[in-house]
TrEMBL record:
Name of the protein in its database record: Quinolinate synthase
Reactions accelerated catalytically: iminosuccinate + dihydroxyacetone phosphate = quinolinate + phosphate + 2 H2O + H(+)
Keyword terms: 4Fe-4S, Cytoplasm, Iron, Iron-sulfur, Metal-binding, Pyridine nucleotide biosynthesis, Transferase
UniProt: [4Fe-4S] cluster binding residues: 89, 176, 266
Cofactor(s) required for function per UniProt: [4Fe-4S] cluster
EC number of the protein: 2.5.1.72
Superkingdom, taxonomy of origin: Bacteria
Amino acid sequence: MAKKIYRSIQEEIQALKKERDAVILAHNYQVGGIQDVADFVGDSLALSQQAKKVKAKVILFSGVLFMAETASILCPDKTVLIPSLEAGCSLSSMVHPEEVRVWRKSHPDGLVVAYVNSTADVKAESDYCCTSANAVKLVEKLPKDKDILFIPDYYLGTYVKIRTGRENMTIWNGYCHIHVMIQPEELEALKKKYPKAEILMHPECGCLTKSMKYADQILSTAGMIKYVDQSTASEFIIATETGLLHKLRKDHPDKIFIPATDTAFCNYMKQNTLESLVWSLENMKYEIRVSAEIQKRAITPIERMLEVCGG
Ligand code: 13P
């Protein structure tokens, strides 16, 4: 049968979504074209909350692998697709389940808090998950006398430690290879160049303790969007992956957004393209499904996070 001709790739994606009973969930770092065609765009927390509400049979996840895995853990009865198996996350590969088990042996009463940027088998070893939007709130709610292992992001963990004043917290030495490039010297130079601009910084940014003094706000990606929506300032320096600039510029054409560095471009996130979304829906690939054993254990820390922090 002849292939149907569409007027645009967007129209083709809409038709395929209908045919497959699919919804597209996309992270704030996706390319603008994907954000515009997605059913829902958000940060890691909002995407987990949204995945739980999906009625469609198929979730096409336009993000990185740990996000698709999280959706599959939360919705084991759905088919979760990701357009590229190359869409990894450097941070999530910096801690392994056996390393968590070693810590537990020496801290049998301790609690493991895993940033959602971790693999399903690491989540399965953890007590709580958190995202950049709720890490402080979550740790604040945990019993003060319990030792905590925070994995895998050193900078987010350090931020949580500072904000909660918690001493009994071991922080893993992992980092996001993109955020670590955003350093205090760059923020200082930009602040001199754009004195009126407010600096919005993601807590994964490099050398957080030194960078913090330049930040007007330390926020998740969704937190930055919300902050700009409500702010009367007209210039912002955005210290995170540059994909976030698409929505900020689209929603606020009258405001100026300056990336903290143009090189904050995550090749993993950008594996997904409009063409690959079409391919994924046509071929129903790549399906992400964690084993039933891991799913059963990994859902507990995610659900605990959603209970404590909403969702
Ligand atoms: P958000 O929690 O803002 O979505 O950040 C996720 C992320 O992967 C940052 O690198």
